[in-house]
């Protein structure tokens, strides 16, 4: 934070041109109340046009300057994609119902996985809501640039109902803003969710929670073994994206790779995949901090020493692959290029290992139908996303078990 | 092999001979731990592709030092004591299993290392620490083990600090009155020597010019105050007249293998210990003069597989090839970003 570092119980509102306006608690709450009185209809054409306009500007910029996460956001907000999002949303509504915004939505995105706040806000805004977003304290240059495009466009459109704010984490503002909000979206793990659970929303309100999650991946050993060169390279690239974006610490980043097959038949092909991934990481100039490389080595050797792993591929600092003993669950989230390899005889054998906090399962070498059957059989308390390898971090409107657009709107039934 | 190297005068074995003798001894030691420590054997098999005969020191398998925090690694059925690292808050300490044999070797090693500096006679001993640090010998901290180890070279120990680590000025004054006129030994951890002893007196207030000061424990806290080894030495000379000052480098996983500061200002390993610098990341051996992670190999430990340990300390070997080491600090701990936020203590209130 630079110029207007807010004092306790004070906030800074982000404004066009990278400016900040310091506000005290009362003024910010008052501003939020005013915003709440000016809602739009879901998928209002002005809002769609504004978002699509920003998307066009991002996609026209030289791609080399833009991170994959921002490019994905820009594709998510292209005019055609937004129109489809709106149509599908309307189709999902119960018969005889129209949707209206919830009102004022308060967003508490994670501090580190920066792009989350953009999606959280965007969907709430498209749904017609007024929003207060507590923006992460530090943002990368490309996320800042994208946010500034939106701030400029909103100002140009005369829309003053979207408040992007900074304020210290120890502050009355979380409670004050909650008290005037109709819905609150909390990202950032169990501890944060718990901290906010004590702060009531306006008239009960709608709470959307994103706690700590575990994600993993499954590949068919035979499918890996029969890949041609080009597909192999493409797979490594996709896997690389799942694994290395956000240092493998996003809630949907996989930490375990289940291989359906047999250690003796498939071990070598998995090791080749590990090498291809490490090579990919090298090409993309991934650098693992030495302290973390050491931690990965300790974790790998400790697992072998305890007997919970049989071997480790660890010589490349970018990727550590630890082959575990038996078909068991391993809940470590070491990150920074650390993958537990678990062999399973069948896809179904993984089913009993699923736990309540599991989120994303990425898959390779299985048809979608097989994964649907798997979900029907095994996704009870846990697992909320099953997507092909390469899409682990692709944000979607259905996330972590929520249809976010539905959560952030209310229904009006007309009989 | 260990005995031959132990009994030779420090620095008297030509480097090539030393490395050859160590290689042989370390291969034997590796086989011993492989046969005696099941967890070590699993790591050699699963992490190093099985036990092989190394043809050079750099090819020996190593364990990362923090592994001793994660696993109880012991190559003996019965241990005499467990050494513990002091460990930072919230972190598990290392647990080092020492039996009588290894303890005896460590003691002999210390004698071989420090006798050339301290002489044959036991010297009056002023510990810059509290007596409490050596109480509870079943699980000693690194500080306690250090004090206890050095006490073997001292007689009539005086502890300069109270249990809450305040300087006991009367005790120090009494010690100086009684022993200050002849050669005596001061031992303490570097930050305690600096913050307590140096901090408690004014320049020239007491005369410690007959002291040999041996200190260890790292420079992290002093670096934060911008106190370098040079400043440390000059300040102690000015305040107390101490000129015989030897820093040493050692860690609980390698007690007995002390690197002592020589006249050239570099830290020198004992005959039965050697150091390899590895590039962070690739862990490839680095050339002398190139900074990297410090790996220590030693013939000492038979009761636990600590004969080849990759530390988290950064260091550099003297480019002149003399084997002197300079310790440059610790590899920074990396906190990975993620979806989970650190929630401030006051936030839930």
Structure description:
With 415 residues, chain A is α/β, with parallel strands linked by helices. Chain A has helices spanning 25-36, 45-60, 68-76, 79-92, 116-126, 141-156, 173-180, 190-197, 221-225, 229-244, 263-283, 290-306, 368-378, 404-407, and strands at residues 10-15, 19-24, 97-101, 104-108, 130-134, 162-166, 183-187, 206-210, 214-220, 254-260, 309-313, 320-324, 338-344, 358-364, 385-388, 398-399, 402-403, 409-413. Chain A has 2 domains: 10-212 and 400-413, Aldehyde Dehydrogenase, Chain A, domain 1 (3-Layer(aba) Sandwich), CATH 3.40.605.10; 214-388, Aldehyde Dehydrogenase, Chain A, domain 2 (3-Layer(aba) Sandwich), CATH 3.40.309. In chain A, strands 2-1-6-5-4-7-8 form a 7-stranded mixed β-sheet, sandwiched between helices. In chain A, strands 11-12-13-10-9-14-15 form a 7-stranded mixed β-sheet, with helices on both faces. In chain A, strands 3-18 form a two-stranded antiparallel sheet. In chain A, α2 packs antiparallel against α4 (79-92), α2 (45-60) packs antiparallel against α6 and α10 (229-244) packs across α11 (263-283). With 349 residues, chain B is α/β, with parallel strands linked by helices. Chain B folds into 2 domains: 2-98 and 251-330, Rossmann fold (3-Layer(aba) Sandwich), CATH 3.40.50.12780; 104-249, 3-Layer(aba) Sandwich (Rossmann fold), CATH 3.40.50. Chain B has a 7-stranded mixed β-sheet, with helices on both faces. In chain B, strands 1, 12, 13, 14 and 15 form a 5-stranded mixed β-sheet that branches. In chain B, β14 (308-317) and β15 form a beta hairpin. In chain B, α2 (15-36) packs across α3. The longest helix of chain B is centred in the N-terminal third of the chain and has 22 residues, at 15-36. The N and C termini of chain B lie far apart (63 Å). The chains are: A alpha/beta (415), B alpha/beta (349). The interface between A and B is large, with 54 and 37 residues.
